[in-house]
Amino acid sequence: MNTLTSKLIAKDFHQHRWLLAGTIAIGMISLFVAGGGTPMLFNIGMLCWLTAIAAFGCVLAMLGISSERKERALLFVLSLPLSFGDYVRLKLFGLLLCFFVPWLTLTAGAIGLVLVKAGMPDGLLPFTILLCVFLLANFSMVLCCALFATSEGFMTLAIIVHNIAISLFIFLIGVIPEFYGHLQDPAPVWGPAFWTVLGIEAAFLVVICSLPYFVVARRRDVI
Amino acid sequence: MTQTKHIEMRNVRKAFRFFTLEDLSLDLEPGQIMGFVGPNGAGKSTTIRLAMGLIAPDAGEIRVLGHLLPENQAIAKRDVGFVSDEMKLFAHATVGWHMNFIASIYPGWDAEYAATLVKRFNLKPEQPVKGLSHGEHVKALLMLSLARRPRVLILDEPTSGLDPVARHELLSEFMDVLRDDSRSILFSSHNTVDVERISDRIVFIDRGRLVDSRDKEDFLDRWRRIQLQLAPGVTLPDLPNIVGRVVDGHFVTLTTNDFSTDLIARLGPAVREVHRMSLEEIFVASVLHHREVAGQ
Is A116 part of the contact surface with chain B (CB cutoff 8 Å)? Predict the structure, then answer.
């Protein structure tokens, strides 16, 4: 990574610092509420935690890429000594890194809540891990779409798909007996379904992050 | 030893759905200010984007400071300052943040010159970019480009939308840049007054084709408008290099793109007045003549 690339990534961190801090704060408060001891507080807390991560991902992709293009700051960035390929790579890496900070913190918080909180069954752990990895993959999808998109319509569609995908994921995981049958177990069950879903998520992540790298970064007409 | 041309375009072609830039060739020499003049939609911005590596040509070759574009644009752009009226700084940051940012990237950043420009342009480093007016925004962009001391400055309609005072300040600054004769400027505009003031080489472009390219003085020396009063029954002889002819009874106005005393001698006593033409008049006459010849 050269100086310019690291400066631009640092710029993204600087630009989104309050968004990062706000997401972490809201996510941690949500986890605190979720550990309140009643099913209702658990549901409210986890819904807010989920919304905080998902909304953060969408806003980050919009502000970091789409707005930069819309507000014509992209032309300023591309006047600097870098190619469009360099720009795509630094945005992909930089915004993934930006997402990682709250995602990792809130994932650790959720896993910690399941493991440490008395009365919270450890059987929730596989589902929690799969949901967190899914949120990362889902963000990567929006990020990839933002790099591909040249219109607001396409980006709006990507955000709609992102939001629907979360509900679909929870629903689909919920009907797999290996998960719903062990959610209340005192110990986690790391069965084949867990590893299969995790493998699919990991493969999706690799493919979705490679697409901008190998397709968008090779565009010869940028603006 | 010949110096590397700062910008070289050879037979460049770029086609879009509704517009094609065709067979464009131009050279920007070190120490030169090239005014790139054309009506809206002529292909000025397309040419400039090609010169910045933002779009790739379908055919032909583009070199900036000897580097082939768009492949080697990252290297070429180390020594190129680019400002466009469509360009914006990061809205969330201040002018001072941008100065620190650019200074940390470019080793040639001249902090003293930057401070001078900030003062001259009445910019406030602590001011957030989102609060800048259009004129202040353009000035901030130019300050950031100029203080890097680039070898080539590429400016796409930089004075568009500026008030006369701001335009004067910016144009004076461009002239200062050229005190160092190893630097050059490619300056696109549809404002011929600005171009005439600072350019020493002028390129006319229209509907994606290069119409004419000469030194400014050459343009101003060669183009004339000649007013004639013909005696009854006298017709005009067949004259070369006449690009415009307006007849009003016995009065005829000719426009020539190759004025000489021989021409006056051939026209004889019918000549009433000979006018030098402004660059704007030359530009309009040149473009209209080009369209007529091309049958458009």
Answer: no
